[in-house]
Amino acid sequence: MLTDRQKRPRHTFRGCLILTALIDVPAPDEYTVGMQYTLRKVPREVDKALRQKAKEEGKSLNQVAVEALARGANVDPIRPKFRSLDFAIGTWVEDPEFDKAIEEQRQIDPEMWK
Prior knowledge:
Blueprint: H1 4-7, E1 10-13, E2 16-19, H2 29-32, H3 44-57, H4 61-72, H5 96-105
Antiparallel strand pairs: 1-2
Helix pairs in contact: 3-4
């Protein structure tokens, strides 16, 4: 059982007494996403197999290990987010109204710059 002092730690800031409470809440998912792990005592056979697979697939050891962990945990493998805009190449359509709106935005008001 916690004492009153443990329940309400006392701190001072510029001579003022500050009472705080201990809060025990789980970390939000955003904090744990991408968490770093350190694994110890990985059997040589597992190490060898992971390194071989990484070499064969042209992936990093980390990527292959994360995929193996995901499979072992029965979750979908983590897929990279693609940020390519290649799909938009060659799709531009001339639009006079758009050009007019852009031209209006590019006008400089000399009074605002005094």
